[in-house]
Design goal:
By secondary structure, the chain is mainly alpha-helical. Among the domains are: about 100 residues, no CATH class; about 120 residues. The chain is built from 23 helices and four strands. A hairpin with a 5-residue loop joins β1 and β2. The two termini are about 45 Å apart.
Length: about 600
């Protein structure tokens, strides 16, 4: 217990000592008048009688029993926010005296009449910030349900009805979907795509293969034919293998809503929808996975509960903001929490823009713009953020629901891109577990035990996902053994494909996409490249996180450059044109790093920021 009064009994200078009149009766009376909405100083007790007492955070009247947030009058029993008056019973900012009547900002003394900032003692006269005493005279900021005082309930202001996270952030996720969707739609209109003009995105294999396969799928569904075999190609063909690679997207149900003559319109709509879903799911990952576990205030603000926001704010920043708020006059608990909430929201409002920006950068990255006509690839790509969110929830909370469903879906809709996603997920799980395992401490388990448990859970859920998709993957694997790609041999000589400088140019604007050959399509906005040094030199971001994330980025770079690793990534196969088909993973990691750097930009020193 600490009393902030100095040796001669006087109150030390602080940001609250703005003149003697601030603590005088006249100023106190004016502030009391401004609190017209607060509890009156006289309130009913359990037996219907009146007892004199002050409200929580208000100025205590002379000889009142309640505790006030403001300064208690000389000789009064109330406690002030600052140091108690000389010779008074009031306590200082931090602690009340043992057995004293007044309570301080911190914990109240045992058996004392006044409670502290947080908890009030049973049977005490004053109320604390959160819980009121069962039979106390004063009402706290959130009166206890069992309190026998029929007083004004000082529950912190609920700033909106609590809803599920998806509903609560409806507009954030809607914009994450709408921005890339509309940008692609505008681009298609500008390019005079049908029905606005006479052009279509049907090019290369989309024209020769994918569109005819979609037409065959539509015919089979409408006529009730089997998806296992088709007689409409040559002398017949295994249609299941075609379905698992080209046609397994659930969005292909839109084929049934249009006539065959509108197939080009359906394909255009599918491309725009899938790019929009990339933005939506990337926005959910950034908001619910990347930000929620690195900035606790994000989830608190989303809950609409001012008390949770106050708890998420660091003690130092909370104290500074409370002092700033108090300079405007004495306020009740509701108004204080509201203003604290609003200021914290203002501080973090830029994070909302980062979610939308990050979602758009990924959805419109260079890989997507180069290969959007490979419409069947886009499904596994838009599911990638959900897979990674499932990994984060598994590691952080032991949540086993999202990950197996997401990874199974990513493999089922397109096993080829699903293989890239699965391999990257294993690498991400290892790096993320190394990054956060010191935080996985509980009362009963040490981090190393929890880490071992998480590894077991990840392997088990991955096996479960493999079992879920086995009815598609096993027949497809058997069919692939009869193709020419199965005979590719491992490269005999190792070589690097390009220099670091050549690779860095692929991050810049106005670079021509690589279609048939060339360097990886890794462009994800120039801001993603510029944010990389900001991420490296930001002291707010832990070294462990920097090492793991940059190691993952470096591994992807080496995979592009090394013919050995590139061969492995492509499933022990040399791709026919369309090189580096897993390069979207690099853009994905780069966008997350950029968001992490920008959301912590305010913690970066100006000199370092300018130098970076």
């Amino acid at each position: 217990m600490i009393d902030e009064r100095n040796g001669d009994g006087n109150r030390p200078e602080s940001s609250y000592d703005e003149g003697a009149d601030f603590w005088g009766d006249a100023a106190r009376q004016r502030r009391r008048e401004r609190r017209s909405y607060e509890q009156p100083s006289s309130f009913a007790t359990t037996d219907g009688s009146k007892a004199s007492g002050s409200t929580d955070y208000g100025a205590g009247p002379p000889a009142g029993f309640g505790v006030g947030y403001g300064a208690g009058p000389p000789g009064g029993f109330g406690a002030g926010y600052g140091a108690g008056p000389p010779g008074g019973f009031g306590a200082g900012y931090s602690a009340g005296p043992p057995g004293g009547f007044g309570a301080g900002y911190g914990a109240g003394p045992p058996a004392g009449f006044g409670p502290g900032y947080d908890t009030g003692p049973p049977g005490g006269f004053g109320a604390g910030h959160n819980t009121g005493p069962p039979a106390g005279f004063g009402a706290g900021s959130a009166a206890d349900a069992g309190a026998e005082v029929d007083a004004v309930n000082y529950a912190p202001l609920p700033l909106g009805k609590k809803r599920r996270p998806i509903i609560r952030n409806f507009w954030l996720y809607t914009l994450s979907f709408a921005v890339p969707f509309l940008l692609v739609a505008i681009a298609f209109v500008a390019m005079q795509f049908y029905p606005i003009g006479d052009r279509t995105p049907l090019t290369v294999d989309l024209y020769h293969q994918y569109a005819p396969f979609m037409s065959e799928l539509r015919y089979k569904i409408l006529n009730g034919e089997s998806l296992l075999y088709s007689w409409h190609g040559g002398l017949g063909m295994n249609f299941l293998a075609i379905f698992t690679y080209y046609l397994a997207s659930p969005l292909n149900v839109l084929l049934l809503a249009f006539p065959l003559s509108g197939l080009a319109v359906v394909i255009i709509l599918l491309i725009a929808l899938k790019i929009g879903l990339m933005g939506l799911f990337m926005g959910i990952l950034l908001h619910r996975g990347v930000m929620a576990f690195t900035e606790p205030g994000i989830g608190a603000i989303g809950s609409g509960d001012s008390v949770k926001v106050g708890a998420a704010v660091s003690p130092r920043r909370r104290l500074l903001r409370l002092r700033s708020i108090e300079r405007t006059g004495r306020l009740g608990a509701e108004e204080r929490n509201r203003r604290l909430y609003e200021r914290e929201v203002d501080t973090r409002r830029g994070h909302t823009y980062l979610v939308i920006a990050g979602a758009t950068l990924f959805a419109l990255s260079g890989f997507i713009m180069a290969y959007f006509w490979d419409v069947m690839w886009l499904d596994s790509i838009y599911l990638l953020p959900l897979v990674i969110l499932g990994v984060i929830l598994l590691v952080r909370k032991g949540n086993l629901f999202l990950y197996p469903i997401a990874i199974a879906s990513a493999v089922a809709v397109n096993y080829y891109i699903g293989f890239f996603v699965a391999l990257f997920t294993a690498l991400f799980f290892i790096s993320y577990l190394i990054c956060v395992w010191p935080d996985l401490r509980t009362e009963r388990s040490r981090p190393i035990r929890i880490a071992v448990l998480r590894i077991f859970q990840f392997v088990l859920m991955s096996a479960l996902a493999a079992g879920i998709t086995a009815f598609l993957s096993l027949p497809t694997w058997m069919a692939l053994q009869m193709t020419s790609a199965a005979g590719d041999s491992f490269p005999k000589n190792h070589k690097f494909e390009f220099t670091v400088l050549e690779f860095m140019t692929r991050h810049l604007i106005s670079m021509k996409p690589s279609i048939r050959d060339g360097l990886p399509n890794i462009y994800a906005g120039l801001i993603s490249l510029l944010a990389l040094p900001l991420y490296i030199f930001n002291g707010r971001i832990r070294l462990r996180e920097k090492v793991t994330s940059l190691s993952l980025l470096t591994l992807l770079f080496l995979s592009f450059n090394s013919n050995y690793l590139n061969f492995i990534w492509h499933g022990l196969h040399y791709p026919n044109q369309l090189p580096y088909r897993y390069s979207f993973l690099y853009s994905f990691v780069l966008v997350i790093i950029a968001v992490r750097a920008l959301m912590n930009l305010r913690y970066l020193k100006k000199g370092i920021a300018l130098g970076a």
